[in-house]
Amino acid sequence: MTFDRLPAGSWVLVTGATGLAGSAIVDLLLQRGFRVRGAGRSAVKAAEFKEHLTKTYGEGVFEFVEVADMTVSGAFDAHLQGVAGILHVATDTSPETLVDTDGAIATVAAQTLGLMKSAARVNSVKSFVLTSSSSTVAATAVEYGKDIAISTEIYQEHVIPLARSLPADVYPMKAMLGYVSTKIYGEQEAWKYWKETKPSYAFNTVLPFMILGPVINPTKGHYSTHSWINEVFEGKADGLGVVYMNPPEWVVDTRDCAAIHVAALLSTKTNGERLWAAAHPHTLNQYLATWRKAFPDRKLLPDFDFPPAPTIDITDREKSTKLLKEFAGKDWYSFEETALANVSDV
To answer: What is the pTM of this model?
Structure first.
């Protein structure tokens, strides 16, 4: 397998470049000698990250462009000139907007399709990777006392009407199912567009499970799942991390998540694929045990009294594992490495 779909030193556009997944992707691309054009809503909020990357990799290899409204037709047109690859990571994660299921779906679909259509008009674009979510496959399927097998052939389409039916004050489930709905609809519409219009670029999607591990962006702030688990480390027993992992599923390290994205972008043999970013099954009590061993003097929460975790067999995960090994030259980060790296900034 070769990873030379894009010429060395090419420009790559990354949306959501300052976030948990996006910043790791940006960093890996720069490590590999590519130049990166990050896109997001606020250049001011990206300033510290840009300074960090410039100090690490030098001048002229990273730039940030502000796109205030990614739903506007042609919003990216001015930023795609000379771009060879696109990683569309940005998505709506705000509970305030996700409770409006149809509004959130429309927003995410407009962002994704708008960027794909703009990319189709630029001859230099050779590869496009969309960040989807494991929840498109696993949402509501995982239950205590029930072992399941899942694959990328599945979409949990029933989630969309379920999200619509919940009252807005059912927190956090209404927003969580709203998020899943945007991922399901947005990814399906992306595949439909790509298959029907046949643009000249390769297209793949990545389905990460819970992303944990180090935050590459040095800017202080809230980094979704990373911050949720840090709350558990700090003694919060009723936060979103506990809700999200009850019942538990799988985890992926930020660095492996980035590697799967970049491998999909560059692999000449990977096209038209849904790819897992899934390293290990995990439970909250495993994190607590790992932290107790590493920090014996720290006061941590007692074990949670949850039922045994269900077994989730990801039947087509080996394809992603092989891609990771060939691209990175290594297997997934261990559970312990990820659990400790996640709390390194606390």
So the answer is: 0.98
